[in-house]
Write a structure and sequence with these properties.
Blueprint (H helix, E strand, L loop, with lengths): L3 H9 L1 H22 L9 H6 L1 H15 L8 H14 L6 H16 L5 H31 L8 E10 L4 E8 L13 E8 L4 E8 L9 E6 L11 H9 L5 E4 L16 E6 L3 H13 L6 E7 L8 H10 L3 E7 L12 E4 L14 E6 L1 H13 L7 E5 L8
Parallel strand pairs: 7-8, 7-11, 8-9, 9-10, 11-12
Antiparallel strand pairs: 1-2, 1-6, 2-5, 3-4, 3-6
Helix pairs in contact: 1-7, 2-4, 2-6, 5-7, 6-7
Length: about 400
Amino acid sequence: MLDLATRQLVKATAPVLKEHGVALTRVFYHLMFHHNPELKQIFNQGHQQAGTQQQALAMAVAAYAEHIDDPSVLAPVLTLVANKHASIGIRPEHYPIGRRHLLAAIREVLGDAANDALLAAWAAAFDQLADLLITEEAGLYQQAATQPGGWSGWRACRVVRKVPESSEITSFYLQPADGGPVPAYLPGQYVTVRVMVPQLGIMQPRQYSLSAAPGGSALRISVKREAASDLSPAGMVSNTLHADVPEGAVIDVTPPMGDFWLDTAASTPVVLISAGVGITPMIAMLNALLQAASPRPVQFLHACRSPSVQAFGPHLASLAAEHPQLAAHIWHEEATAGAAATALHQHVGRMQLGAAHTLPDADYYLCGPLPFMQAQKASLLALGVAAARIHAEAFGTGGNGI
């Protein structure tokens, strides 16, 4: 535990960090990538260009300063960060680099207010945080490497199948190129893949949820091709995977990680709620339940723009027809004339949850864009669902934010 004077100095900077945190983190990343350009291959440069990584780090630094008296309050966030770090290969030797550039950024942004006492306090606070993360990450690395079929770091995997699931989403089936087995994982977890991005001239990592139940002969990821829009450029890695990575290609993959997964030991009913490509961990959870012949009642609730962009539609319809404990509801924002009749309950418009979409004592799993999940969580709470039964993961950066 840090001494009282150190904690008071760090805590006193929390309001300043809330106001100027993004400016500080912009300087931090600029300094780090200038002096340690090799780290550009570890960090998502798309998030850097969009500013989302700077915003996420600013929020995390401010929260740490605010809770410096009891960092255990941030345990769920630290677990999320440790999983992300382990998935992209952050190691103990990287922390001194981060420490040096964070202190330099504090000095530059805060100016005369960043006296020697404040910098020493933040150095001690950084070391405390680093120790917590390094310990948790060491456990993740060891668990990943010592389980059957496991490994640590990057492993060459071959794309043995490439299957279009919709007009935007394609599945990639990945097997270790060395011929070894794939490891077990929990439904809901993800892997990180790394490919060369031509426009950057460097390797870039991205996390993708595993979209199949554990126990298969390959790791399946289902990747949405992110097109350019008025708000964001085209996804560099997703477009590279779709256009330039054919069947037979070899890409780098890390072991499964992630703190969002289905509790397979529970006996409670399950409600799986997703939007867009957020369907990917949900389909893994659903497949795991049904393949295990679980008697748990399941509601599968999914929203997307139209049938053309919806992934796994025929598979869902087949499962709903075969398994009476499954009720599947699909919302399409755009109406489609003459849609084929299936075992799916189909709706037009945006998802609107009601009492019919809840189950007594159920656990609820949410995945999708942050505004979608915030809206669905608010609906669930209004319907009387306990907050402790709502589990969520937002795709992107900076935690789940709900």
